[in-house]
Amino acid sequence: MPTLLLTGFEPFDGGTVNPSGEVARRLDGARIAAATVVGRVLPVSFERLPALIGELVDRGAPDAMLGMGLAAAEPMIRLEQFAINRAHSERADNDGLAPDDRPLDAVGPAARIATLPLGPVVARLRAAGIPARLSFHAGTHCCNLWLYHALAALERRDRRIPCAFIHLPCLPEQALATPTASMPLDLMVEAVRLVAANAIDQA
Amino acid sequence: MPTLLLTGFEPFDGGTVNPSGEVARRLDGARIAAATVVGRVLPVSFERLPALIGELVDRGAPDAMLGMGLAAAEPMIRLEQFAINRAHSERADNDGLAPDDRPLDAVGPAARIATLPLGPVVARLRAAGIPARLSFHAGTHCCNLWLYHALAALERRDRRIPCAFIHLPCLPEQALATPTASMPLDLMVEAVRLVAANAIDQA
Amino acid sequence: MPTLLLTGFEPFDGGTVNPSGEVARRLDGARIAAATVVGRVLPVSFERLPALIGELVDRGAPDAMLGMGLAAAEPMIRLEQFAINRAHSERADNDGLAPDDRPLDAVGPAARIATLPLGPVVARLRAAGIPARLSFHAGTHCCNLWLYHALAALERRDRRIPCAFIHLPCLPEQALATPTASMPLDLMVEAVRLVAANAIDQA
Amino acid sequence: MPTLLLTGFEPFDGGTVNPSGEVARRLDGARIAAATVVGRVLPVSFERLPALIGELVDRGAPDAMLGMGLAAAEPMIRLEQFAINRAHSERADNDGLAPDDRPLDAVGPAARIATLPLGPVVARLRAAGIPARLSFHAGTHCCNLWLYHALAALERRDRRIPCAFIHLPCLPEQALATPTASMPLDLMVEAVRLVAANAIDQA
Asked: Is the ipTM, as predicted for this complex, more than 0.90?
């Protein structure tokens, strides 16, 4: 049976919850289309992530691969098409590092492009009544790093599988502290299920 | 049995749905605490609303009164404490009128204050995990008009009952066209039920 | 010769500059239309301001009165028409006080309205190419307090003079720390001169 | 004497002015550091721009090259470090074209990186009191196209000169219609002069 690797992140920057980690946990072991989901929660670490992503690809040999992360002020599901070769953050990651405008890979390309075509996925999310949009900039934090390095890991192993990144809004409970947009977990799970089904279709 | 009058608005400005009207319909006839909800959907009309509000008060003799309306870019439940004596709108209401910075009542006070104390209500919504905030400005559209004229109608009849206004975010389906914050209908209904229970407690 | 009282505020909340204080200093002693400007810089203090405003009115017997303050995220000149009877602030003023949703005056009206008609003033600012807008909500900080208490002081003394409040954006130097809109001091001074000329015309 | 090519754009999307075109006109022929500025105004055209950029490089053989464009909601000077291989616009360009998520160059790299190091330039702008920030996403309109194709033109000709793109805020006159951040033309010109001096230093 085909496998979909679905990763989220642990909480960061003083937060106690990260919707992407919650969705990964909720869908771990689920069956979507004809595939089984392997849900994993990753550390928010510029340094440790590249190796961890490589290991997940090696161990799991997934047939499709989706990363998820939190985009704090975002009101919608946001599908990331580009990952740039850059790390920059004003706030420290969970290892205490805040990279200042430096390349992710000194010899890598300026950017990589998601291998799952995202235009049709956005259309299907919207057809299902879920606010979603296509994005051309995944930021310069660990989410962008995930997509850049996941695509690199697949290239290096010559594995041509669908791979993309999903930015999620805050959970309602996160919007209690600062006035910001949010989306209930159930709606996020429904959205990610739909993206996953599309990724498996393309696998 | 005590009665809570709960009003929402019809769609406006080209929209096909208004969450406040949907919530009013969903809760019409519901029992909250020891009270029965009378849910009504009002026209978005600067001219017709004052008389309609007066009639609802006269006919229903409610024991508590909550207005609801849409605040298009708002990401949270917003409880309105003030209504100012002003009508101003760049966009026409459903009668084609767009008042330009004019008083709602040439001889009325500069503002009126909601008779339901809203600080504790916000605290209870947040304790229930629902993003909510206290607001000091209800705008200058029909929502502000509702609160100003509802409080006027109660004053004129010397009816001292809890009365306030709830601004709701867009529904997810409304956020499909423009990228904006949204909240599912079920969460809105849960929030309004909680506000209503507090209003009845104070009645 | 008629006198225009023009007040700004000192820096607050850790800032080192406040554009409103700078403009007050720059225009102190200036002649605008047929009037002399008396420019004063006030403390950001919920407790001390009411008495200080009263003293300025008593000592100066101004023929027109304009308050100015900073609206940190505002990109335009914003003319305030309403002051509500409320003080609320998440951040402490310069005395360390952060009032939590409490009335400015336990027996005062719910709001007061600026006595300088602001619609035409906005039109003249815009005709001069200066981004400006009419506002119906002055917030719940010391700016709103200024307008509420200045109008109260004038009422109490039965002095019918033009009185309004001007919110200014950040200065470019303030926008260095946080990415926010700003306006150079010279353009602010030009804008305030124009508002002042209109206030004196109405005096 | 070395030459700096400095391009802006004509107005678009119904506008009557474009600050980037104004700055290009103002600085055409100016001497900055030891160089002469060649200021040019380009059409907002996804189709015609690539060839026009190539011609400017061929005819002028510039020693440094800066593009400028308008970023409508941006409050600061924004220096663009990345150009992605994508064109996407909801609104038509001046030829009536609105590309829908398509590559700029079917065989080109996923992105190109500005050849003028921008971190130090941002630091100098800020030291001069000018609100400025480093950006990692130039959008998907003609501004991003300019940077992608300018860098391509230089690569193809093996010309290693400093090249980057500057996004400018609205002019105050543009902020009259919609409430948005703005910056006076003189401050923009000062900012662009500073960026240009840095580019010539690196040439």
From this structure: yes
